[in-house]
């Protein structure tokens, strides 16, 4: 199932809420123009199916599970969007020239769940469209300041929201014991969630970036450390989600998409 993002707030007075999504559902916080210029919406036949992030002016990174069986002629990438209904003044919609899926991607376990989309023309960088540097998690930058961003469903099994939202992910080394032994491979995946157990990505969120405010060299910088790959459903946000660990794929990204912009 393709995923989007919604954020679940569990009311403290509710106990034993079933995984079907009972309890109070909130949409996170609405983004404002230019707040997340690196996030893109990937659509098929004009319907949002996944998120992604800008790697450089010609390439977008997303999850392999988003595009593995999709006809690229049906796909568009929307850059600089807030609303999926009302276009922004600087919004760019670009068709796809080609795509590259990691050749060892496993459909069953979603190991190596990463892909590249080559755009038919360069992105025009601005305050609403920008690349973001990827790196390994900065384990010393604590407390962890992570974020997940996307166009999310209002309930499990629902359609995507129409406006970009975000929510904090403050545990970048969560416990994925609820997954099988072959479902979580630390060298290639990140297990991340909310320490309060109140936030989880959901349908139509595959490919969306997991970011962290890192402090490499004493300078704070927002980097992307993972892309949303899978979870056990969003009805129980206390169970963390699994993200593809981007730093592991440095050589593959460089070989297929080239360098990131020098100013990053």
From TrEMBL:
Residues spanning the signal sequence: 1-16
Q: Any idea where the Peptidase S1 domain is?
A: 25-258
The record's InterPro entries line, in alphabetical order, gives: Peptidase_S1_PA, Peptidase_S1_PA_chymotrypsin, Peptidase_S1A, Trypsin_dom
Indicate whether Hydrolase appears among the record's keywords.
yes
Which SUPFAM superfamilies does the UniProt record give?
Answer: Trypsin-like serine proteases
The record's section on CDD domains has: Tryp_SPc
Q: Which keywords does this Swiss-Prot/TrEMBL entry list?
A: Disulfide bond, Hydrolase, Protease, Signal
Q: Which organism is it from?
A: Daphnia magna
The molecule here is called: Serine protease
BP GO terms, sorted: proteolysis
A Pfam family annotated for this chain is Trypsin
- Top-level taxon of the source organism: Eukaryota
Q: Which GO terms describe its molecular function?
A: serine-type endopeptidase activity
